[in-house]
Please model this.
Amino acid sequence: MNFILGISEKINPLHSVMVLSGVIFISSFFVMSENRAVKKFIITLFSISLITAFYLNIYSFISAGNFSSILFYFENLQMLEISIIIFCALNLLFFISIYGRDNRHFIKILNLLLFSTISAIFLVVARNFLLIFVALIIFILTTFQLITALNSKTDRIRPYIMGYFLRPLLAVILFFFGFSLFYGATDFKDFNQILQSEHISNPLIASGLIIFGVAVYLYLFLFPFQGPYIRLVKKNEFSSNAVIWFLYFPIGIFMLMKLNGLYGFFIERNNIYAFILLAIAFIFILVSSIGAFKTNSIRRIISFLFLFFIGIFILNISMFSAGIITGDSLAWFNIENIFLIIFSFIPIYNIFSSLEKNTNSDSIDNIRGLGRSNIYMGINLTIIFLSWIGFAHHIGPFIKYFSGTNPAEMGILNLTLLVIITITFIFLLINAFRIIIRFFKKPLRGTIEKIVFPGFLYIYVTFFSLITLAAAVWGLLKILNIDIGIMDFKITGF
Amino acid sequence: MGIFGVFYSREIISVFISFQFIIISAVINFLSFSQFLYQSSLWDKIFIIFGIISIYLLMFCIIYYFYIKMDVLDKEALHRDFKLFKITRNDWYGEDDI
Model:
């Protein structure tokens, strides 16, 4: 017993990885099989393993607390990030099981999914530069293979996939260059050590950080480099779009969050950086919301709105640089934003992809009258879209910071920030209501066609809308200062 | 040179060669800093080996994907008119009608 406890202690933050690796080992015996029963067994095995990994991740944090070694560190934030990754992987398993079950390489695809999940987990807990770099590149490699395997039936998509993945390739090469500069500036192998050392003002660190910034910018396909992303999303198979949105993009955001401490140090020293960040965030939010508003293709709308939410992360960093929120609040804001993205986009994309499969077109006119013909689905979707109003909590810190102050004394940077946040909120509402209104409009052909969704989709969407409602009630209670004592969880930095 | 090549090249092979310029410059950085600042520590060699292996693995996978089973017309289009940073109006404003 002591022996088992000893092993358990040694692999403390990586219990979830152990479970997933074990399942990969078991399923590797079945990769060549095309038997339906075997596929069902593998899907069940993978679901159970992911749920167990999710549980073990939280359990190991509660039982053993923070963990730190030369290679890893595991705190509240990392626990939350890993939970998000495993939850996304579970949903991707669901997507792939629906749309890719007939694929010849189905079990191989599921193995690749778990490989990319494991490399994503390593990237999140990595502390050492080498581990960060290798985990990132293996994550991109496995994602590339996953998407190519999912699209193996259509050869026409190949140039789009290549065009897409050349960007992350350039991003990791720039990361390699950036790490070489960090190595030149200090002999440390860890972002936290650099932040606390006396070499922090070395110009090599600043240039390394600029290169990292460019790399993350390219990785996330921010404006004006979004071309390959938009083109791939338009042509892609359903489940591989989900891989891009719910696995590839969150990892880019976690990478950005790893660098937040170093960026915060430089931005706090000079106000001009805050203005530059604000300008980037504003242009990005403006362009992506106009893009989403102008287009009639549902896939393009979702992809632009995804970019819009990534713009909000940059806005959060500029709020931090203006001193409105602290570093801990920034991490909390980012996590809330990721939750908002995951819990709204997964059910929305699920329903819209099901609609697209029924009608063979991704035009926005397909959703006209959905709220009339299928009232239950219409109400659920409306609740999920209305969850975007939760973005309004970004104005909360301003109220706390400037309560009782004359607006003229707020300072030009803070005032601009407040105006931009208000504009962002208005854009978000315009885009949400554009879709909600279509649900309850009369369909183009005059008669309402009954769209039949599979039974499990009702349970799936109800689950998400109930979570959204619970979060809304909790938020309201928090605003009204009523403490019910259920949630008392705070991020204490990283 | 690498960054310029990435922006300027109109052929996929030139883009890959530009990538290699950046990789080589990073390797030179590692080795020279190690030689002159940190008395030839082992750390940089380990980083170079792991970094090079993983980057080249990814590059190999992408090139292999390019040369296997891709349509001849698509290959020609990629060779003739390829730009990594091609910015068109259609990408953010208007429908994708390709």
